[in-house]
Amino acid sequence: MSSGALFPHCSASLRAAVLFLAVFLLPAGLATPQSDTGAANASAKPDPAAGKPVFERYCSPCHGISGDGGRGPRLNRSYLPHAPDDNELRSVIANGIPPGMPDASYLSKEEIANVAAHIRSLARLPEEIVTGDAARGASIYGRSGCSECHIHNGQGTGYGPDLTTIGDRRSVSFFKVVVRNPASELPEGFLLVTAITASEKSITGIRVNEDTFTIQIKDREGRLFSFRKNNLKYLRRETGKTPMPSFADVLSPSDLLDLTAFLASSRESR
Description:
The chain is an alpha+beta fold. It is built from 12 helices and 7 strands.
């Protein structure tokens, strides 16, 4: 219907003014019909199945395809220290945990909610069966010299990774593989190096940092060395190698299971 039909006794300019007020000053819900799609999406229940492929694409490279850990912590457990509830979990996914975990600014709120729901569903997967004796494994850990390279509950040397809460970050199957073949599961960026100085001094250790001109190395005693590369006589990179020995021929099968059980039980207290 035209404005002339609505306001037959008004001038054209006045009719236009009245229509302007009618459209823009009426309550928003009356001015224009609104789609309820946004509201429906906002109240939609998060979908773990929809979150699964997003998780597998963006999260599994660090946390494992089943959330059993990798470069990032294990997620297939009921309690997550950084995300004790669903709101915190969504916040962690969205904002990350610097410096190791990046934010997910490329995901929508709906996708983040779905990924969070999928992560929660991972805790309902059957627990891995631990067949060893953790108490006996603690004794094996002590007598096998593990504390010479690892810290556990504040004891030991930090040459290798801290194992205090390693059970929260790695799976039982991971432990079984690593104690037998440590080089098979090296962390991303891990590199064993040997530097030969101009005075023929040899330093072997783990690369802590490296740029175009310098390299920093930590040796087995935990000492840090920094070198300018052009001052070194030789720098050997031991790609795919680790100073950790295999225990496959050192410990019995039952000892290996007990050691695995001890490592799996090393978790953050609640």
